[in-house]
């Protein structure tokens, strides 16, 4: 059976979650691989959420917020962006591929774009192959 | 080159009847509804714009006003009551005054009183002149032949001089019209042979007046009535003009009817009579848009024409009945109307009789020149490149 | 903690969900989950019988958690919370799984969609176990209001509040009330005198004992939160006055565009090119003259100076079109022999009486000339032989011609732009600005006078260019909003907000800086931070940043989200090759 990536999407309530809802009301079709978790703002997304998702077996993590300047909470998305940059560094040193974690700005009106982002990300991760972290963690435990 | 806006022109055009042009906000309904407007000559909207902006040179060199036959559909469609039809009419009046270098026309359009004064003065002069000649050379009791009060050879010679004067003015006006439309307006190179190729348009439009029949609303209304009336009037003029200028002695002779000329003359008279009555009726009733805003000048023309036709018919009948003296007096009145009527022709709206077919002729040439230019440019270059 | 008794309700949404997702399979699978007491499906969960089903189950089966798998929570979360409340349990014990917008409407494969719906619902079941009962809390409302700006907006707001018997502090920077309207002669389209309009307002404001007018004063600091602001205002003498207010109305208005920025218009070096406000000055003095002292024969009005251009301001300044028509009228009546050209891009005559005003202006023979966006007019001096002082080059749209318009006096209809101090004001009262610098409303259509900061309202041209009627309407609307709050006497804060566990807080103050609403306050005595919940909007930025994990985002706790992550991840085994 072909590899189907598992992607966890963290979406801010005001722009991106609404954008994903719009994808639904507009009947935009996108791959089923993404599972969405709603947060109030992209700034709420603690890096540990992403690490937790990766260690629990997610092959990719998507973080979506409002476009710069459009944040419902003035500048939460900038905070998310800074954390994302730092997290990327950490992930690189852990040996996690760049494309597994992705930050995208999706506004409430970008239903079509949301679908495109999911399709694109699914394809990229399909090429990367499964996330090894979980397998290694299980191995680690077994060795101990 | 930027054209200069003249905010004052609109005030001047008001004298010529363009009262409502300022209301236009350029929706373009008028151009869309016009059957004569095409991709080359777009009107009335563009002319309305030039008018609002006072682009004098653009207006002076434009042909569009002559392509409009005032069916009135544009004015009916206009959402703002900007009267595009009447604006085109006033532009025609203005253009006539621009073609006329003497400035007489302009004065007539600006003041009907002045025109009336001119007409009365000329009529009186003509009346005195003819009476003076009649009493000097003939007998008021003789209408025709030797010792006639107004002998046909004299009137014939007089007519020729009068026509020469009229055509001199008209000729100069036409030259200016040609210069404005074909030279000053520029925009396209016109090869000389197009003037020959397209010449047929001139008599064709002059004798058929078919553009009147193309106006949509005119087709709808009463079996081509305006077109038939114009055709009748126009043919009436032409036939009468030819008869008077060449066969006057046979027209005047009597009392028996010379059917070879009189048959045509009767026909022409009927055309003139019907045409005149139709126009007077229209102007009184004011049902159709084009008759709602007639100026004093229009009435002078119609009244003179009525007098001419009625006196013409009356003297003819009197002569046949042997009432020579009454026939002679009627003849003098007839001539008193004819002289000013003909003399004012080049300076008034009625010159459109000639300008309209001329405009169709010029328009045909310009369109053909544009087609040549369009075809010429792209074809010549690739061939050269391929070689 | 009490044992969790969860009810799971899967909605068919007619065929919207059931057409793709095998609802019965989801129900069957969920029914086997730990803690789930009952799992049911229904045609329309949001319908009255659907809600009643939940209420009855809560009552009969003693449910204490509810999961509804249906449409987006943005749609019906309030509906189902209400149902829980009606059944007598805390409304926050609800969690929704979005299996319509995120599943049945975006996927075609029935097997995959059913699996996804199952996973999303099971994640919701895992999450709901960690839900806590949350209560809304109230704070008292101070009935006084601070109005910033003494223009027509500020005056209208102050009068509305003052007339209702509430204390108002009207703070104006300049030494007079009236703002920009005070610089204007007549107003479009009815040609009422601006002076008359203002005099009435100003007299009433000065006479009202409830309105404290403070001219030559400015706000220097605003602390506190909705219902309980502390404002520090510096008055004309330089003294600081402390004011306790419950609400703030920002009516700081606009300033005009600096026309000298557009070189082609020659403003600043051709003396007879003036701005609209300079013309207003002339009209108020009663004489329209060129700099040489002559009566101008040709007057040209140029629209959209600084507005509707990508280079300067892309937005429309809204009032200039009608103001220009007003000038055409005023110039014609002052100089009957003059010719007025009106050089515009589009004529925006949208308001009451405005189209009629435009029609009257055309009939008064104003020459309207339309220029193209991106091809701004150019002004040059005329030669000695010309009968005018200047020429304006324009690419005229309606004729397609390039034209030159004669002019002795050129009036530039300068647009509106945010004041230089708008950034400082925004910072002081903690509201945001858009990319142009205008203050942002809470919702452009449905909440146009509120801001993202509770208790701070905006009215008039400080949020975008506006005419007088809209400005006054906004000011009065803001006043009405405030009066409603005053009438209630207390402010109810949403139950979802951040909370600091003071035992865990190390007092590092990272969160203090992060909060966009300054809702996190540092207690210098305790050396701990705490959240003023009335000001918190629950974004969670501080929660994610707290190094000691001392801040809890109510209803979005780490535990709840972790449970949800775990819930969405156990995939069907056959997806891993």
Helices and strands, with pairings:
The complex is a heterotrimer of chains A (144), B (387) and C (577).
Chain A: E1 7-12, H1 16-25, E2 34-39, H2 47-55, E3 60-65, H3 76-94, E4 101-105, H4 111-128, H5 133-143
Parallel strand pairs in A: 1-2, 1-3, 3-4
Helix pairs in contact in A: 1-4
Chain B: E1 3-4, H1 9-15, H2 29-33, H3 45-53, H4 56-60, H5 64-67, H6 73-77, H7 84-99, H8 104-110, H9 112-137, H10 152-184, H11 193-197, H12 201-208, H13 210-214, H14 216-220, H15 225-252, H16 259-285, H17 296-321, H18 324-344, H19 352-386
Helix pairs in contact in B: 7-8, 8-9, 9-18, 10-15, 10-18, 10-19, 12-19, 15-16, 16-17, 17-18
Chain C: E1 6-11, H1 23-31, E2 36-42, H2 48-61, E3 65-70, H3 73-86, E4 94-98, H4 100-104, H5 110-128, E5 137-140, E6 145-148, H6 152-163, E7 168-171, E8 186-187, E9 192-193, H7 194-207, E10 211-214, E11 218-225, E12 228-234, E13 240-245, E14 247-250, E15 254-256, E16 273-275, H8 276-285, E17 298-305, H9 320-334, E18 339-344, H10 354-363, E19 367-370, E20 378-381, E21 390-395, E22 402-407, E23 409-414, E24 416-418, H11 422-429, E25 456-458, H12 468-488, E26 490-493, E27 498-500, H13 510-514, E28 520-523, E29 528-531, H14 541-545, E30 551-553, H15 558-568
Parallel strand pairs in C: 1-2, 1-3, 3-4, 6-7, 6-14, 7-10, 14-25, 16-23, 17-18, 17-23, 18-19
Antiparallel strand pairs in C: 5-26, 8-9, 11-12, 12-13, 15-24, 20-21, 21-22, 27-30, 28-29
Features:
heterotrimer; A: 144 residues; Rossmann fold; four-stranded parallel sheet; globular; B: 387 residues; mainly alpha; 2 domains; 19 helices; 1% strand
Describe this structure in words.
The complex is a heterotrimer of chains A (144), B (387) and C (577). Chain A is an alpha/beta fold and 144 residues long. Chain A is built from 5 helices and 4 strands; from the N terminus they run E-H-E-H-E-H-E-H-H. Chain A has one domain (7-143): Rossmann fold. The longest helix of chain A has 19 residues, at 76-94. With 387 residues, chain B is an all-alpha fold. In chain B, 72% of the residues lie in helices and 1% in strands. Chain B has 19 helices and 1 strand. Chain B has helices at 9-15, 29-33, 45-53, 56-60, 64-67, 73-77, 84-99, 104-110, 112-137, 152-184, 193-197, 201-208, 210-214, 216-220, 225-252, 259-285, 296-321, 324-344, 352-386; one strand at residues 3-4. The longest helix of chain B has 35 residues, at 352-386. Chain B is elongated, with a radius of gyration of 23 Å. Chain B starts with a strand and ends with a helix. Helices cover 30% and strands 24% of the residues of chain C. Chain C contains 15 helices and 30 strands. In chain C, helix 5 (110-128) runs antiparallel to helix 15, helix 6 (152-163) packs across helix 7 and helix 9 runs parallel beside helix 10. Residues 572-577 of chain C have low confidence and may be disordered. The chains are: A alpha/beta (144), B mainly alpha (387), C alpha/beta (577). Chains A and C meet through helix 1, strand 2, helix 2 and helix 3 of A and helix 4, helix 5, helix 14 and helix 15 of C.
